[in-house]
Amino acid sequence: MEAVRLAGPEFAVDDVARSAGVSKTVIYRYFSDKDELVDAVLERISAVVLLPRLLGELARDHRDDRARLYAVIAAFVAIIEDEPALYRFAYAHVGRSGRTDLVAATERQIADALGTAMAERLAEAGRPTAAAMTWAYGVVGMVQLAAHWWSGARTVPAPELVEQLTALAHAGLGALLPPAKP
Questions:
Q1: Domain-embedded: residue 90
Q2: CA 94, CA 8: separation in Å to the nearest integer?
Q3: Ordered DSSP codes for 66-107
Q4: pLDDT tens figures, 6-48
Q5: How many CA atoms lie within 13 A of 37 on its CB side?
Q6: Is residue 16 within 8 Å of 37, Cβ to Cβ?
Q7: What is the span of the domain harbouring residue 47?
Q8: Model confidence over 107-161: pLDDT tens digits?
Q9: How far apart are CA 145 and CA 135, in angstroms?
């Protein structure tokens, strides 16, 4: 990850070796080719940067649903701001043919966690739960696509983007979900 931070999304194996303080030969003892190394970096970004921040905010106690949405969206936007090279690297490798799309896998984990929480809320209120996953994937997709567009356009400051996305997501979910029990 340090090599990506220093060299950017199109890092070379030499950059990784230099960051690790080893020879390129040592790198190839652990990875058969650059694609395998890229997959390892993507897995690490997901496991160390994305999932802990996003799932952590989703699981935290917040004063209400809007505050929870705001915190998760703010965490995602902060990742784009705090780790621009890692973010660009991850999205430069989206949908590589024949390889696992770890960005999509991470998004699925977030959406599944959100959907599970919404389904539980609906079930507690005695309401059907079938729509929970649709809503969760819709919210995650909306935030991801809007934030990705924003990462290049930067048409508004980050806090304003977070507020805009939170307002949109909360307006929809607030109308659909029963109130949280205290």
A1: yes
A2: 16
A3: HHHHHHHHHHHHHHHHH-HHHHHHHHHTTT-TTS--HHHHHH
A4: 888 788 899 999 988 999 999 999 999 988 888 888 889 989 9
A5: 22
A6: yes
A7: 2-176
A8: 999 999 999 999 999 999 999 999 999 999 999 999 999 999 999 999 999 999 9
A9: 15
> Which residue carries 């997709």 as its tokens?
141
Place of tokens 């780790």: 83
Question: What amino acid is encoded at 176 in this protein?
Answer: L
Tokens of 70: 């705001």
Whether residue 66 is contained in a domain is answered as: yes
Mean pLDDT of 52-60: 91
Tell me, yes or no, whether 38 lies in a domain. yes
**Number of structural domains found in the chain:** 1
Q: Which residue has the tokens 């599944």?
A: 112
List Cα–Cα distances, 100 to 3, 22, 39, 93, 112, in angstroms: 22, 28, 8, 10, 18
Tell me the whole-structure pTM to 2 decimals. 0.86
Q: How far apart are CA 112 and CA 130, in angstroms?
A: 13
Cα(174)–Cα(182) distance, integer angstroms: 16
* Structure tokens given for 31: 């990875």
Tell me the three state secondary structure of residue 180.
coil
Examine residue 181 and state whether it is found in any structural domain, yes or no: no
Q: Which amino acid is at 156?
A: V
What CATH number corresponds to the domain at position 101?
A: 1.10.357.10
